[in-house]
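Ex. 9. Protein: NADPH-dependent F420 reductase.
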Amino acid sequence: MKIGIIGGTGSIGKGFALRWGQKHEIIVGSRDQKRAEDKAAEYKQILNDRGFDADIRGAVNREAALEAEVVVLAVKYSKVASIIEQIKPVLENQIVISVIVPMEKDRCTIIPDSGSIEIEATSREDYMADYFCYTTPPAGSAAQEVASMLPEGIELVSAFHNVPAAKLSNLDISLDYDIGVCGNYMHSKNIVFDLVKDIPNMRPVDVGPIETSSMVESLTPLVINIAIRNQKKDIGIKFVD
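Predicted structure tokens for NADPH-dependent F420 reductase:
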């Protein structure tokens, strides 16, 4: 299968290229042709060194989307509108996967001990804490917003939001995670289920239609906050019976 990774030069894009490049043809997409080619060569070398005859090449985003059967949107939420504008003219029969999470960092005041301590204005900064929060798009979720921008008939699937990029890129690590998958077409969802299974020990979980994507997207800032506050690193999600 030909997989075009839009944002393939980023950390999560690298992980997808290295994991799926063991079985599939990968096109690393970027706004810059040379950067795409350089990163594709880097990923290919990593897999070749591990004994895989990887088929990975770089291209500008439009070309990556044009030639792919599956297009992965691995970009920041703030960039999604401009990216879709680039690739929309060449989208016809491709399946599009959104891994986009709209979130931002915020700050709050942590009251020490009993909560009765009066904080002096000059020391208030000592009690400020950062945290990540989900910023709900007007459409309800990033996936729903993406769906509204895509050409009619393009099947969109929302998945892979809660995978730690650093661990996805580390081929020495086995990823024992569950992946929530949202979409309105079983044809495309089944293809994404298979792509999840192509990564050893990952399990796809059917969450529902694309309208349920906000539930899965919003778990990303949750797990990041848990990791930070509890001195954990790159945690994911596993559903236990």
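Check your answer against this statement. The mean pLDDT is 91.
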